[in-house]
From TrEMBL:
Protein name: Sarcosine oxidase subunit gamma
Domain of life: Bacteria
Organism: Paragemmobacter ruber
Length: 188
């Protein structure tokens, strides 16, 4: 039998998450978060909301993100959210969530489908107005949206003042990272 020695790599192809600082901007690859989409089945919206509340999973409204003690989530569409949890304790996030929701919701593993980059800087609107149509000046912490960055469908989640996350397709991680770097160099 062959002896395969596989090791995980980040979306950018490194052994450890990559980070770059350009002036006041730091762009960091984030790999310690498990992701699952949660979609309430037809007619089960109230049941899903009640179950999520009991399980400590925040389910924010349209255009928002929320952080709980263990789980975080951001809104994707009516009765649908992306749920986040620490990867170290929730690697198989769907198996952890499924017993709570049973047949009331559809859960889909998303961890390896997305690349996440956290961007920190004192003036993020100056950078992001070059990237997408999400007006950061009009939104504060807890805002989230789907937008397009360099022809890639991405999610932007404002975590705190001067700190946001960009989630884009893992298969285009290098292109997204390059776009973020280019915008940072242009803005600062």
């Amino acid at each position: 039998m062959a002896d395969h020695r596989l090791h995980p790599i980040t979306p950018l192809g490194h052994d450890t998450p990559h980070s770059v600082t350009i002036g006041p901007v730091t762009i960091t690859e984030v790999t310690d978060t498990a992701l699952a989409s949660l979609a309430a089945r037809l007619g089960e919206g109230k049941a899903v909301a009640d179950i999520a509340d009991t399980a400590g999973i925040p389910l924010p409204g349209s255009g928002h993100a929320a952080q709980g003690a263990t789980f975080a989530a951001f809104w994707l569409s009516p009765d649908m959210w992306m749920v986040e949890a620490p990867f170290a304790t929730h690697e198989d996030i769907v198996a952890i969530l499924k017993p709570h929701f049973g047949e009331t919701a559809s859960l889909t593993e998303q961890t390896d489908a997305w690349a996440r980059f956290d961007v920190t800087a004192p003036d993020l609107p100056a950078m992001f107005e070059r990237l997408c149509n999400f007006d950061l000046r009009a939104h504060g912490p807890g805002a989230a949206t789907r937008t397009v960055i360099e022809h890639l469908g991405c999610y932007v989640v404002i975590r705190a003042p001067g700190h946001l996350s960009v989630l884009g397709p893992r298969s285009s991680a290098a292109s997204l990272f390059h776009a973020l770097e280019t915008a940072a160099r242009s803005a600062f």
